[in-house]
Amino acid sequence: MQMGKYIAYLSIILVFILISTDSSAQCSICTKTASQLGEGPAKALNNSIVYLMLAPFAVMGYIGYRWWKDEKNVGS
Predict the structure, then answer these.
(1) Is the model's pTM score more than 0.90?
(2) 17 lies in some domain
(3) Are 35 and 46 within 8 A, CB to CB?
């Protein structure tokens, strides 16, 4: 039962993260460069920064999940 709640909460958070469209992921130098490129390439640059950011979070999430699962099994 607890695992079902955990998956439901994680799914809701993931949906909110994927739906957010106005996230700004650029540093000041990237913002200045993107403003010179125009709106289309600037949006693509921002989306690519967010995409590249997701990989480390996914790996750390998987490691954290496995660690939590192993600790839960050891305590039983």
Answers:
(1) no
(2) no
(3) no
d(CA 46, CA 24): 7
User: Does residue 67 sit within a domain?
Assistant: yes
Classify the C-alpha dihedral 33-34-38-40 as positive or negative: positive
* pLDDT, mean over the chain: 81
pLDDT tens, residue by residue, 22-41: 656 567 787 788 778 888 88
Q: Would 38 be classed as within a structural domain?
A: yes
Whole-number Å distance between alpha carbons of 2 and 17: 23
Range of the domain at 61: 24-76
DSSP characters over 1-50: -HHHHHHHHHHHHHHHHHH--------HHHHHHHHHH-HHHHHHHHHHHH
List of E strands, 1-76: none
